[in-house]
Amino acid sequence: MSGSELDHSGGVGGGDEPKKVTQRGLWFDEFEVDTVYEHRPGRTVTEADNVLFTTLTMNSQALHLDAAFAATQPGFGGERLVNSMLTLSTIVGLSVSQLTQGTLVANLGFSEIAFPKPMFHGDTLYAETVCTGKRESKSRPGEGVVSLRHVGKNQHGDVVAIAQRSTLIRKEP
């Protein structure tokens, strides 16, 4: 478009309103089974993130909060671990803008949650989601159940979290 097509009100072509695009998640019909949705950018988890989340959720596990205690424990190089619930929450959160923003009716449940490797302060978490199935709701017209498998990986590509999630998603109006 040339500069002459813009009017002074910011519209295109003599006063028309500009096209607007609002970010949203996918409608039920847009989810494709066996498709991998990569969520970027990732999120680097800091010590402050871990301490805040751990204390907000009343999790007093010393491996998350006590550096002196963690230094005496075998298996993790003497480092504190990132709270696994923070890891899970973050991989789901990383998916929201791409998959469920404004289209999710409800989380129906989580299952098959696993944390194969730990996260440490300074690790960057990347997430991807596979749509593992979908079906129209029998009891709620205009909505459908979408099954999602979230996978979190650190900056080295190591899988640090996996969770199966069942969601209720709106169909396009």
TrEMBL record:
It holds the Pfam family MaoC_dehydratas. Gene3D superfamilies: Hotdog Thioesterase. CDD domains: FkbR2. Residues 1-20 are annotated as: Disordered. This is Acyl dehydratase. InterPro entries: HotDog_dom_sf, MaoC-like_dom, MCH/BMMD. It comes from Williamsia limnetica. Belongs to the enoyl-CoA hydratase/isomerase family. It comes from the Bacteria. Residues 33-148 form the MaoC-like domain.
